Amino acid sequence: MEQLNVATATPPALSVSRPRKPSALVPDFLHRGHDGFIPFTRKVGEEWQALGSVPAWQLRGLFADEDFLEEVDADSYFGLHGMYRAGRYKQRHQLSQLEPSCRSVDSVRWITCCGLDLDSYKTGLDVHATIAAVMRLVDADKLPPPSLFTMSRGLWVIWRIHDREHTNEPLRAYPPEQMVSRHAKVQMALHQVCASIGSDAAAKHVATVSRIPGSINSKNGKRVAYMLPADIHGKPFSYTLEDLEAFMLPHKSPVVVDAKPVGIGRKTNNPKYGKRALKGWHGRWHRMRGLLLQLRNRRGGWKVGHRSAALLYVGMTLKALKATDKEVRRLMAQHLEGMEQPTGDCIRLEQALSIYKSIKKIRSGGPRHQTIADALDVTVDEAAFLSADAKKTPFPPATRHSEGYVPPPKELSRAEQAERRREAIRRIVEALGEKGISPTGVDVQAHLEAEGLGAALRTVLKDMQYVGCPSPRCHRDKPAPADTSLLPGF
After folding, report:
1. How far apart are alpha carbons 118 and 153 in whole angstroms?
2. Do 123 and 218 touch, CB atoms closer than 8 A?
3. Cα dihedral sign for 85, 91, 93, 97?
4. What is the mean pLDDT of the chain?
5. pLDDT at residue 423 is higher than 80
6. 37-62: b or e for each residue (b if 16 or more CB lie within 10 Å)?
7. Does residue 150 contact residue 238 with C-beta atoms inside 8 Å?
8. Is-contact 318 329, C-beta < 8 A?
9. Taking the model in full, what pTM does it have?
10. d(CA 439, CA 428)
11. In the chain, pLDDT over 70 holds for what percent of residues?
12. What is the Cα–Cα distance from 435 to 430, expressed in whole angstroms?
């Protein structure tokens, strides 16, 4: 296959490089300054902490900040793909200099690469032996030449993707459902080829993260290294998504996804009733349809033991949303795509359609999420992945995995949030007053942010006045107006 390479800013060295501090070079090599956001996260013990997100074009400036480098020095990760972080996201994050984090399959706007996490140490291979195994697969024409290796205890092997028309940019995921589905098929094909050398099936989805090169892996105490293979002209390998599909899926025609959403039995031109804003059981069925597709893509297909249950719930969503025959066949085929099935017990499209036809007309909101989680054996990590954009109703893990699972706290009402904030302000002002400090609104706001109770300065000033501790800078008593009644002419 003819390789199409892009001359962009690349590292001067094409051999193994191990930075002495977290480096922006590899993230910038993949993201190439697009207008999306890159999420950052870190792992403290067994807890994942969202650090925040930054526009790709600000990446180099961020890594020049010493405070940020200190925060991401150990067990830190960056998102492989660019996200669209709309203003509606108000999630918590650890670093005040970053925007709130957004990392979900539905939020992907730029596809930068295809990548596999090879946990080769579980198969008895070290990093160098794993690289040799990958290159043997390349020599056997089972894999295209990789664009990047990142090396820690295991190995990440990555194929960079560029747009067919704008070769210096990553691929824009539009329409999102179609592009993510095509990317998932290529990921599944790459995983199947590398499964024998430790490919992690849980790291194939487009919302995955990888370690930042130069950061420390606390499991072996070493900094993450990287290597960039090059062609005979010294340029890194880069592919279009069509190139990878032609190489990895030569016998599969791409599935055309209709941009038109599934109908719900009523027509309206009012955007207030879009499928993302539907209330009641209509919106619940739409959400379930999306969650099942996300879970299927994360797992790389339904496994033996969950196939019939998954197709049953998919059929229920289609029946409830009154999908057309074309949409039923398309979505059922999409869920069957890439499924690992025993030779003598394969579920074909005809059988999936018979499952759909056996479902009676649905007039309610359907089964509880806990029932679906138990039937599909949803793990704690999968539940957290499916609940990324659902604060009020997070998707639960299966009952057998719920030991040690701590559900998120109940969201406070606006009145409760205000009371909690005012009590904290009263406590902060009293503590500063005992030290002889007359706190201003800016001082109180900084202490509130340190406690995780961020608020606008205007709100802080109003609350200080409410609790009887006005700011000496902004709440000075105004002089009374002069009595002009005795002046001449009045």
Report:
1. 10
2. no
3. positive
4. 81
5. yes
6. bbbbbbeeeeeebbbbbbbbeebeeb
7. no
8. no
9. 0.57
10. 9
11. 81
12. 9
| Amino acid letter, 108 | V
pLDDT tens column, 176-234: 878 888 998 899 899 989 988 989 888 888 989 999 999 999 988 999 999 999 888 88
- Phi/psi at 239 (nearest 5 deg)? -135, 155
Orientation of helix 414-434 relative to helix 457-466, angle to 10°: 70
- Bigger pLDDT: 423 vs 406: 423
Q: Specify the pLDDT at position 4.
A: 41
| Secondary structure letter of residue 198 according to DSSP | T
How many C-beta atoms surround the C-beta of residue 341 within 10 A?
A: 15
- Can you read off the two tokens belonging to residue 187? 């990921």
229: how many CB neighbours lie within 10 A of its CB?
15
Query: Rounded to the nearest 5 degrees, what angle is found at the Cα of 184, between the Cα atoms of 181 and 188?
Result: 145
Q: What is the pLDDT of residue 149?
A: 95
What are the φ and ψ backbone dihedral angles of 102, each rounded to 5 degrees?
-145, 115
Over pLDDT 90: what percentage of the chain?
27
User: Which of helix, strand or coil describes residue 237?
Assistant: coil
Q: Is residue 471 a contact partner of residue 439, using CB atoms and an 8 Å limit?
A: yes
Say which CATH architecture domain 25-248 belongs to. Answer: Alpha-Beta Complex (3.90)
**What's the rounded Cα separation, in Å, for the pair 351 and 98?**
49
Structure tokens at 226: 């990287």
DSSP track, 202-255: GG-STT-EEEPTTSEETTTTEE-EEE--B-TTSPBP-B-HHHHHHHH-TT-PPP
The count of other CB atoms within 10 Å of the CB of residue 89 is 18
Which is it for strands 155-160 and 222-223: parallel, antiparallel or unpaired? unpaired
Amino acid type, 269: N
Query: Who contacts 489 (Cβ-Cβ below 8 Å, separation ≥6)?
Result: none
CA–CA distance, 107 with 6 (Å, rounded to integer): 26
Residue 273 is given by DSSP the state G
Both tokens of 415, joined, read: 């009145």
**CA distance linking residue 202 with residue 302, whole number of Å:** 13
Domain ranges of the chain: 25-248, 271-401, 414-466
Report residue 273 as tokens: 């009733």
